[in-house]
Design goal:
The protein is mainly α and about 130 residues long. The chain has six helices and two strands.
Length: about 130
């Protein structure tokens, strides 16, 4: 399967597939004409990468997931531990976003939103930058 077909089959862009190949996360054979030729196994790896990245796994965690997937002697507890670790990271990000949401809501509520040039949002942003 050429790179365009592999990208389409996995929902990734060609650029992303090349990037993953450059990182060594997936390997393509080379056809006689020098073009990349992705095996079914490589496309499966790309699918795992696409879904793992969608779920917030970092590149090194993806590498570990791929290694676990390729290991027939793996223990599911190792995969679960990696997923739990990612869930903790996602929950931390959600907490940070909720804090940002509250701060932004406060700034918006302080702004009159009228024709007056005075703006509580800009004042608040300026005060935060000097703090």
């Amino acid at each position: 399967m050429n790179i365009g077909q592999a990208a389409k089959a996995t929902g990734l862009t060609v650029k992303t597939v090349r990037y993953y190949e450059d990182l060594g996360l997936v390997k393509a054979d080379r056809a006689e004409n020098g073009y990349r030729d992705f095996s079914d196994t490589a496309v499966d790896r790309l699918r795992i990468l696409a879904q793992a990245r969608h779920l917030g796994f970092g590149l090194e965690e993806c590498r570990r997931l791929l290694n676990l997937n390729a290991d027939p002697t793996r223990a599911s507890r190792d995969v679960r531990a990696l997923a739990m670790q990612n869930l903790d990271t996602v929950r931390d990000k959600i907490s940070q976003l909720k804090t940002l949401e509250a701060e932004l809501q406060t700034l918006i509520s302080q702004c009159h939103g009228d024709d007056d040039p005075d703006c509580a949002i800009l004042d608040g942003l300026s005060a935060r930058a000097t703090a």
